[in-house]
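Budget justification, computational time. The allocation requested in the original proposal was used primarily to generate structure tokens for proteins on the priority list. As evidence of use, we reproduce two of the resulting records. The first is shown immediately below.
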Amino acid sequence: MSADKPTDAPSGGFDEPKPVDPHVPGEVAAVRPGFAETMMYVRAEEEPVLPPPRGSIGAVGWAQQNLFSSIGNTILTLVGVALILLIVPPIVEWAFIDAVWTGDSREDCIVPGAGACWAFVEAKFGQFIYGRYPLDQRWRVDLTAVLLIIGVVLMAVPRIPYKRETAIYLFGIFPVVALLLLTGGNFNISIWSAVGLVVLGCIATAVVAAFAAPSVPGYVAPALAGLAVLAWLVSVFVVTPDVGIGADGTSLATLLAVFCGLAGGVVGLVAIARRGFAGARSALGVWSAVGLLCLILGIFAVDFGLSYVETPLWGGLLVTLVVALSGMGASMPIGIALALGRRSRLPIVRFASIAFIEFVRGVPLITVLFMASVMLPLFLPQGVNFDKLLRALIGVALFEAAYMAEVIRGGLQAIPTGQYEAAKAVGLKFWQMMRLVILPQALKIVIPGIVNSFISLFKDTSLVLIIGIFDLLGIVQANFTDANWASPSTPATGYVFAALIFWIFCFGMSRYSLYTERRLDTGYRN
């Protein structure tokens, strides 16, 4: 082979020059076989950006990706469309097209081809919302609703400031104002109610002294407190001689309970003072709570000029919201306390919390309501009785607290051990650690479980009808017996109206829960 002729086969040398690409940049180059690795192509101008295919964007693209992405999805889509065409048109025709919107009696709803009897809902709307609440006093319910909406909006919108003040208003001031507005106030509160609160404060002070100031007075104080509790139990279940004090008389056991409780409180304060005021902050918190409760009792005893409306006249959506909101508000702190108690290292606290949670979760809500309405008065002293609605509220709150405790306990168990160790490393005490580090993270984790419990509670409020309290569903069913509105479509219309109200509240809670989850989802953001 001649030396001046190029060859296609490599010679095996190390210094042989590589082929040179002779084409001009920007032009198409003729590429010989085997030359692709040495060719460089440089574009003189940018390639124009082409729009995506029409089949991958818009409604057509969304349908192709979500409804017709496979044979199975296509079959399910077609079946779903067929069901919609089969079910929705008759519902629309019954609820809107053929519905009776206005009328004065059943005669307007029994015409041939009539659909939903919305005239019945319009005529009974006041009862569905207020129950048998007096007509001239319903402004009090409306004012209570406005105050509630203001508090909820201020608390729910993140951009509105002063959340701490709003929480004090919503959970502290509003319940007192709502109770005064709805009932009228001017309760017949005996002086013994205030005395009982003071005795409870003394007993709590004695317990604080036992833990914070271990000494002879610190051990005598809880002993006196135990005698006070024992004497009170005797006064409840055993008939003892009465002792006249002024115009009223009370049992000897009750007086003994008051004396022992007050003595235990005084001895406890002495023990705290002798130990350098150890536990003074806890004692101050106890007496602040006692003073606040005494102030609230005094407010309830004041006559504000409002007529008294007894709770049997309440009904409809008013009762539903009262039961639901009271249960939600009370079950949250009780559930947190039970969850912490179940994880406590103190055997008495842990076993008491476990026993309460497992016992309450093992019985249905109807049983709890029956116990609160029928059985509880049998165990109270003679002449002592509570309002039926109040007993139902207590039963619902305790029942919901047991379930809430397990939801919150799941959040506490999901917190890594390092969080506890880090909080202790910076010098935080137990309650500081829980308040500042652990509980905020645990509650954020279990937001879906908490809201799910609230939604379940809101729907379970209809069970109070079993004990004679007419909530929204109960008052709707009670109006079916009105002969003036008896028609084939009246029951279905009433149930649809009640279902719509329940759905609005439950759907609203669900949507706000999702919004809160997205807003607080800061742990896994990139």
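The second record produced under the same allocation is shown here.
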Amino acid sequence: MAKTTYNISLKGYVGGSDFDRSTVDRELARHDGKQVNVLIDSLGGSLATGLSISAAFRNHGNVNVHFVGLNASAATIASLGAAHISIDTGAMYLVHKCSMAFFEWGSLNSDQFATLIADCEKIKADLDKLDQNVARLYAARCKRKPEDLLALMKAGGWLSPQEALDWGFVDEITDLAEDAAPRLTDALASAMADAGMPIPDIPISEAERESAFGKFITALSSLFKNQSNNIPMPTENPTPKTYTEAEYNALNARLTEATALADSQKKTIEERDSRIAQLEAKLAKTPAEPSKQVVEDSKPAGDPAPKNEVEAFVDTCNSARQLFNEV
């Protein structure tokens, strides 16, 4: 089977250079009256750009959108104006409530806090309106009630291709040879964390599987799996982790070794503390010796050592000077 030819490839940040309205308008104009195939692979971005591209697809009419990789947020909204939407069997789909960056740092008095609270209430009201509008767009595509889509947006969990099809976001699941399944990398996980997205349960990139990041993501991703919040959609039960007897014995041996090392270090510290306490107690009981005794003790005992030639010469000079003074 021949590979699909895409007239437009939209990737990266929605609103960035690789996913912008001007590119879409230019390509749609070049194919006026013709079918246009669009490839989307994006975690989202600007809602305004997503709505604008969706309108452009709807106005053109004959647009087919195909999802690969991880697609979320504004990227899914951009597809809503397409006549036909498909998703690769290895791709994933996410919808969530609208959000915006917010940061406030400083020392505020009660009046300033009141102003800040009022501003936040206005922002919340605007976000609520955006959520209602997006829910209506999703509902029109899925042929469901807006309330159902708003509840799904609030849950914010990743959907498998089958779940996206069951909800009505896509029309078809494909298994094309040229569509590679998404792999989790450090950069991808960081981008999702910055956007407040849950980490999907997808395979980790082979290059990072054995790294500390890979092990961390494996554990962290389980926290976000199947976050349905009782939304009626298909879910899969996670496969429990099992260990062989050899793996269990190895883990137990390492734990025993670590425990023994900790006990040994604790004993060493206790012995050192005890020795310090003994020395301090002994020092407190020992009286200070008189300075005279210290000086006397510092003097050498027995006959004085014989003087060298220089010392003898100095003594002779001193004796002569004393004799001269007496005369």
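A brief technical remark on that second record: The mean pLDDT is 80.
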